[in-house]
Amino acid sequence: MIGIDVIKQELIALGKQLPIYLDYQATTPTDPRVVEAMMPYFTTKFGNPHSRSHFYGWEAEEAVELARENIAKVINAEAKEIIFTSGATESNNLAIKGIARFYGSKKRHIITVLTEHKCVLDACRHLEDDGFEVTYLPVEPNGLINLENLKNAITDQTMLVSVMGVNNEIGVIQPLKEIGKICRTRGVFFHTDIAQAYGKIPIDVNEYNIDLASISGHKIYGPKGIGALYVRRKPRIRLTPIINGGGQERGMRSGTLPTPLIVGFGKAAEIAMLEMKKDYQHVKILFDRFLEAINKEIPEVYLNGDKEQRFPGNLNLSFSYVEGESMILAIKDLAVSSGSACTSASLEPSYVLRALGVEEELAHTSIRFGIGRFTIKEEIDYAVALIISKINNLRELSPLWEMVQEGIDLKQIKWSSH
Amino acid sequence: MAYSKKVIDHYENPRNVGSLDKEDLTVGTGLVGAPSCGDVMKLQIKVSEQGIIEDAKFKTFGCGSAIASSSLITEWVKGKSVNDAGEIKNTEIAEYLSLPPVKIHCSLLAEDAIKAAIADYKSKRK
Asked: pTM of the predicted model, to two decimals?
């Protein structure tokens, strides 16, 4: 093992800064090629794409439509099927609430999964308040849904199934194609939150029978504040809009389109499509390098979520007997998260890990390492060396580790909960 | 969440980490919290014939504030009489470490731990 300081010097020589960014599920840096594409649309090409009477408007509109096309292509959709929103949270809200409100007089049942993103779960909770019935499917210990459970949950009242593509916390890939097939056969709309999957793994809305799909710009090296909802046209899916106004975006989402953000999003999509294989290989190699080194050096570390059916840009590990927050503090040269950025302020262990049946104490020890396009091998080596250098001290500090070493079964102890 | 300088200091240089012989009659052991809550503290004191705490050791599974709270309390109790140590309030720990509201329970756990250690010591003396 090369010394930790040697790797640190190497990183600095390579122009990398500390802390090392390993939180690519929270957000990604904007690709410099994206920023370059966006710049003119702030200054010289600043027109409102909805202005019909002059060149500035036409110029902006053309740029927006080109971006729409590039965004659609990544998932084999038509440009007209892309509705711009402020991000995946809005897209998920629009898809779920929009469809429920439009078709709600006929059918009142929605199916989703316990491990969905908070915004999907919260949108569903709000619909429950409005009298809709929601089924939250459990997941298997590997984080994937059981297709038989899905089939059994569908009734003649079911209007919508919402299952995400890649999980933001643990990276597992749900079987979208199989889910789409079931939904199409049973005449149920299929929505998927593909914020973490889009541009990273191949997704074909036609092959997978997807009716609605939520996309985010900043998860694919594009700008924050822009996203999209794919809405199928054949057969036509209708939504009641959440935002009313001038009727932009086929009436589904009013408001002036933010041209620079859309241009950036479009460029990011174009790059993602061209470089998807390369990006995937890159993160896969680094994932394997990281996991192998950790497994070789540290006992009792567990990978959360299925090892094969996952996007390798996500490495969620439980370091048993070391509480996650103290681990993060110890490895402060690494910018990582103990779960999703939305929930990490709370003291509860991750609801996603608990849905997997990960024991609560182990759920408290999990850390999510996110690897992306700009991560380099030296950063992974530094991360691994840093973790190895700290883990022993942290375990020496842990009464649980000591008890386990003494052969005490932690489950037999009567803990005083507080 | 940003930690205070004192928390960082105790976290990075924890005082009195370790274990004392729990079978020793002059040693009191307190084990509080639960793994499922994300905090477990083990605090031990060694008490002299005169009832003075000669040594204190801890091990903690928990966040930075939990580790700092237990580290700090081991410093505070050393040299104190058992009765005085039992008087330490969690609010004093929280105030000294400038713990944010969501971390107050860490100081409470440290108070529980010293009380449990003293109770264990006293029960051994009976």
From this structure: 0.93
